[in-house]
Amino acid sequence: MTWTDQYGDDVPGDLVLLPDIEKLTPGQAEVVDLATWYEVGGTLCVSAAAIGFLSEDYIETDGTNIEQVCFCDHRYDYVNGFHRR
Fold first, then answer.
1. Torsion sign, CA atoms 82, 40, 69, 56
2. Of 7, 13, 51, 75, which sits most exposed with the smallest number of CB within 10 A?
3. Alpha-carbon span 85 to 83, nearest angstrom
């Protein structure tokens, strides 16, 4: 099964929740920030492989309503964690 986002681009099948930033080194946090983020039902996700399997919190989805989050909306800090602007 191939999922697509709102642009018609393929979505990885290994989506996981964004990891807890407090458990990441600054370098790991940068890897997560630079990966392509997706929003599934209001939850921010990323490909497990793209972030070096830093999160193992896989999500259940039927592949509908997956939206790619614009890179300019990525934001993280150690106070607020990862989130959209």
1. positive
2. 7
3. 7
Instruction: State how far the Cα of 19 lies from the Cα of 48, in Å rounded to an integer.
Output: 10
| pLDDT tens profile 27-58 | 998 899 899 999 998 888 999 999 999 988 89
Side chain identity, residue 19: P
Q: What share of the chain is helix, strand, coil (3-state, %, to 5)?
A: 20, 35, 45
Instruction: Determine the pLDDT at residue 84.
Output: 63
Lookup: tokens for 18: 């964004």
The residue among 65, 29, 69, 62 whose CA lies nearest residue 45 is: 69
What length does the chain have? 85
CA distance 83 to 25: 17
Read off the pTM. 0.82
Distance CA(14)–CA(81), nearest Å, equals 22
